[in-house]
From TrEMBL:
It holds the Pfam family Transket_pyr. This is 2-oxoglutarate dehydrogenase E1 component. NCBIfam families: 2oxo_dh_E1, PRK09404.1, PRK12270.1. Homodimer. Part of the 2-oxoglutarate dehydrogenase (OGDH) complex composed of E1 (2-oxoglutarate dehydrogenase), E2 (dihydrolipoamide succinyltransferase) and E3 (dihydrolipoamide dehydrogenase); the complex contains multiple copies of the three enzymatic components (E1, E2 and E3). It comes from the Bacteria. GO terms for biological process: glycolytic process; tricarboxylic acid cycle. It comes from Erythrobacter mangrovi. Residues 1-26 are annotated as: Disordered. Its cofactor is thiamine diphosphate. Keywords: Glycolysis, Oxidoreductase, Thiamine pyrophosphate.
Length: 932
């Protein structure tokens, strides 16, 4: 079985072949369950066991009568059960805690007495080749089981359904030639890596007394283990590793695994910037920063990148996975997932406590999100800041959540760097072969508490009394190597002295170090740039398409394959779309969107759209995926286009994880239009951490540009508090320094142009779009064919549907989104000839200059009103108020200040009563038009 078997269903998009059905089930699930205990069932069949024992006795020259054979078979069955019990529960008796504080009694079922062999250690039993034995004394078998499953590595894997995966792990664990073995050179290399990790932390502690560094002290075995990931991963086909990790040990990983020069880190510790002074941005603390580099082992070069992250625990996980998926797509590695490896380093309390961990584990076998297995490394400090494990989780291990995706778990004693390194080597072998997640749970401790300024004895005095007298990892391991004759007494001391000397040289060099370039527009981003000034960021580009392409896309969107049986309602939708192209009129929102996607794909860009119901569309409007009503075969019209790739995925029911994944994908690939769609815009607040910490601030903090698009259904239609507001006000509050673009668009053509603009500009900014619900089919929210062609482009401001001479306008109503149509219809019904409704389609960057030009032409203007559907404390009012006033001043109308028309302040985003909603809507429209 190869890892490609875990991409359960063919990718939708350019592939439209038959899908394994029915769609409610994965074809692997049932097969796995059926096979799960085949090996045990065979071993425990009494009849089969008697035959096996008789045959084995005969071959071994043992004379057994029928009664003895029956007894021997019974003994064999009990011995096989003992073996299975160790495979299932042996980890519970493993020697994992370096401090010896976690007292672990051997379970009774893991003893001879508990299995009917009390007082009979010399009894010989038949085990049929297990552990390399045919016949073995039960005492000897017990000893082998304890050494294998109860040493410094405890393996949890019997929860895995797939028989081949279990047997693979058993072989690597149980056969004599597969146990932990390193050459003398390998052992010395492990010791050197541990020493580098320890002395680096000690050096920082001396040079920067009292400075927080979230040191790795107590967990230094991770350094040689991660080097093993690079070395063995490279030999197994890995060419790129993408890391995500928390604070603890980050500076050590940057220096001793990633190869970031020590002098650069010392420069940053001294208050220096990580980037040239003219780059700008806010910067971030040094233990949030990322880097990229290349390491070479055995002639194989592996590119590595550490993704920057905020303090929010585990938030970087989906970003790493999304970036990994993008890099796999770029390398054409989506079938085997062999070349790009995600590695996530976790804290124990966060792995058990943060829900985003499960959201990411849940991606591991899902079409469109699978990365072929992630290596999870848990730095198990046995404490979360000041919280002891018994108060932090409900299960024995922090890693237990990973059992939900049948990931094997290797628990390992952090004081044994060979065991930790072996665990990483085994993890790489498993991941590369089976394409599945695997977890390493390294038990260690924090020598100095949560950070270097913390006093851990306030809350864990017994633990820290033990830690103060506990020898360092290098001391324990060096003594072991001296005893083994691998090194002499002075070897470790010389390694330490040489490394400290090197650090002193780097420390001196840091005084003169100055960064000479910013690392953000290389590789796939070559040719991109940062806008020279805010006006450049607002400048439109040519986004219209040629008639020939327009007509061709029309045929693609309206041609049903002869062998596809579509739903009758979909048939009517396609017929209506065909009529649009024939008449050149009445193009709706979904068709405008499809034209944008299709034109970009034809021009060579990728398009990736994901969300909980994105294929059909939450409001049955998109129909990007057509489903055969007889077979459930999927057909994607835009997936048949040449040059680029169109992908659409119905995502897991997650906002936080999926949005982070798509952000990571867009971070890696600026040549793919990446869009995430909320089922309702209100639900985006479930991903607020990603919005606040990554989307809005990632470029300022880490110099990481991103072109992700958020599609957030928004609009007040009486559907209640959780189905009305995408919280426009929150996005506008985040706007500064040209960091994101926020739009509330009212026409299909303008939507078409803004999507194309997103890819055709030479820079990338996140784009937040308040997408409509009722406007998806509103008779006035339509566009004509000519608006997609010729010289047309995205309009930041849209004029009134009714032509009104600017010089006659007495009252100007400014608004954005759906309410514009309510205003125009009510205005026309009232016969008002001097009231103009102008839509602000792009709220940020605010189009102050063109608005000022428009206001200047309105020579008879007496009133400016801002109208919105949202409550006064929500929506755009508090953002646009002063900006509109500034535009009026620029137009030579300093006395004009906008007034507000909309709902009153409210703690709830919207009312849940249809009648009240309608009354409020009519009142705000009347107020805006001066009818009350």
């Amino acid at each position: 079985m190869g890892n490609e078997s875990h991409d359960f269903l063919p990718e939708l998009g350019n592939q439209d072949g038959p899908q394994p059905g029915p769609s409610w089930a994965n074809p692997r699930w049932l097969a796995d369950v059926v096979d799960s205990d085949a090996d045990l069932t065979a071993a425990l069949d009494p009849t089969q066991m008697r035959l096996a024992v008789a045959q084995a006795a005969k071959q071994a020259g043992k004379a057994l009568d029928p009664k003895a054979i029956e007894q021997a078979a019974d003994d064999s069955i009990r011995a096989m059960l003992l073996i299975r019990l160790f495979r299932v529960r042996g980890h519970l008796a493993a020697n994992l805690d370096p401090l010896g504080l976690s007292h672990r009694e051997c379970p009774a079922e893991l003893t001879l007495e508990g299995n009917g062999f009390g007082g009979q250690p010399d009894k010989e039993v038949y085990v049929g080749g297990a552990f390399g034995y045919e016949w073995v004394k039960v005492g000897e078998l017990l000893q082998a089981l304890k050494e294998t499953y109860c040493g410094h590595v405890g393996l949890e894997y019997m929860h895995i359904a797939d028989t081949e995966e279990r047997r693979f792990l058993q072989e690597r664990f149980e056969l004599p030639d597969e146990v932990i073995q390193f050459t003398p050179e390998g052992k010395r290399a492990i010791l050197a890596a541990v020493i580098r990790g320890e002395q680096y932390e000690k050096f920082l502690g001396k040079k920067y007394v009292g400075t927080k560094r979230f040191g790795l002290d107590g967990g230094e075995s991770m350094i040689p283990a991660l080097e093993a990931v690079i070395k063995h991963g490279g030999s197994a086909g890995v060419r790129e590793i993408i890391y995500g990790m928390a604070h603890r040990g980050r500076l050590n990983v940057l220096a001793n695994v990633m190869g970031k020069p020590y002098k650069v880190i010392f420069h940053e510790f001294s208050g220096g910037s990580a980037n040239p002074d003219d780059v700008g941005g806010s910067g971030d603390v040094k233990y949030h920063l990322g880097t990229s580099t290349d390491r070479e082992f055995d002639g194989i070069s592996v590119h590595m990148s550490l993704v920057p992250n905020p303090s929010h625990l585990e938030a970087v996980n989906p970003v790493v996975l999304g970036k990994t998926r993008a890099q796999q797509a770029i390398r054409d590695d989506l079938k085997k997932h062999e070349q790009v490896l995600p590695v996530l380093l976790h804290g124990d309390a966060a792995f058990a406590g943060q829900g985003i961990v499960w959201e990411c584990l849940g991606f591991s076998g899902v079409r469109g999100y699978n990365t072929g297995g992630c290596l999870h490394f848990v730095i198990n400090n046995q404490i979360g800041f000041t919280t002891s494990p018994q108060f932090a989780r409900s299960s024995p291990y922090p890693s237990d959540v990973a059992k939900g995706v049948q990931a094997p778990i290797l628990h390992v004693n952090g004081d044994d760097p060979e065991a930790v390194t072996f665990a990483c080597k085994l993890a790489i072998e498993y991941r590369q072969r089976f394409g599945r997640d695997i977890v390493i749970d390294m038990w260690c401790y924090r020598r100095f508490g949560h950070n270097e300024g913390d006093e851990p004895s306030f809350t864990q005095p017994l633990m820290y009394d033990q830690i103060r007298s506990h020898p360092k990892v290098s001391e324990i391991y060096a003594a072991r190597l001296v005893e083994e004759g691998v090194i002499d007494d002075g070897y470790a001391d010389q390694l330490i002295a040489d490394f400290i000397d090197h650090l002193e040289q780097e420390f001196a060099a840091a005084k003169d170090y100055e960064p000479d370039q910013a690392d953000w527009f290389g590789g796939r981003w070559a040719g991109m740039n940062k806008p020279a000034d805010p006006e450049t960021a607002r400048r439109n580009v040519d986004t219209a398409i040629e008639r020939k392409l327009f007509d061709s896309l029309g045929r693609t969107l309206t041609t049903v394959p002869d062998d596809l049986v579509i739903h009758k309602t979909l048939g009517r939708v396609i017929d209506a779309k065909r009529q649009m192209f024939e008449s050149g009129e009445g193009f709706d929102w979904a068709t405008g969107e499809a034209l944008a996607f299709g034109s970009l794909v034809t021009e060579g860009f990728g398009v990736r759209l994901s969300g909980q119901d994105s294929g059909r569309g939450t409001f049955s409007q998109r129909h990007a995926v057509w489903t055969d009503q007889k077979t459930e075969r999927k057909f994607v019209p835009l997936g048949t286009l040449p040059h680029g790739k169109f992908e659409v995925y119905d995502s897991p029911l997650s906002e936080y994880g999926v949005l982070g994944f798509e952000y990571g994908f867009a971070m890696a690939d600026p040549k793919t239009l990446v869009l995430w769609e909320a089922q309702f815009g209100d639900f985006a607040n479930g991903a607020q951490i990603m919005i606040d910490q990554f989307i809005a601030a990632g470029e300022a903090k880490w110099l990481r540009a991103n072109g992700l698009v958020l599609l957030l259904p928004h609009g007040y239609e009486g559907q209640g508090p959780e189905h009305s507001s995408a919280r426009l006000e929150r996005f506008l509050q985040l706007c500064a320094n040209d960091n994101i673009c926020v739009c509330n668009i009212t026409t299909p053509a303008n939507y078409f142009h803004v999507l194309r603009r997103q890819m055709l500009r030479s820079f990338r900014k996140p784009l937040v779009i308040m997408t409509p619900k009722s406007l998806l089919r509103h008779p006035l929210a339509k566009s004509d064919a000519e608006e997609f062609l010729g010289e047309h482009h995205f309009m930041r401001i849209k004029s009134d549907l009714k032509t009104i001479d600017d010089k006659k306008v007495r009252r100007l109503v400014l608004c954005s989104g759906k309410v514009a149509y309510d205003l125009m219809q009510a205005r026309d019904e009232a016969g008002l000839e001097d009231v103009s409704v102008v839509r602000i389609e792009q709220l940020y960057p605010f189009p102050g200059e063109p608005l000022a030009v428009r206001l200047k032409r309105m020579t008879n203007l007496k009133e400016i009103v801002w109208c919105q559907e949202e409550s006064k404390n929500n929506g755009a009012w508090f953002f646009v108020d002063r900006l509109i006033e500034e535009a009026a001043q620029a137009a030579g109308k300093p006395d004009l200040r906008p007034s507000y028309a909309g709902r009153d302040v409210s703690a709830s985003p919207a009312t849940g009563y249809a009648t009240r909603h309608q009354q409020q809507q009519e009142a705000l429209v009347a107020s805006a038009l001066g009818l009350t």
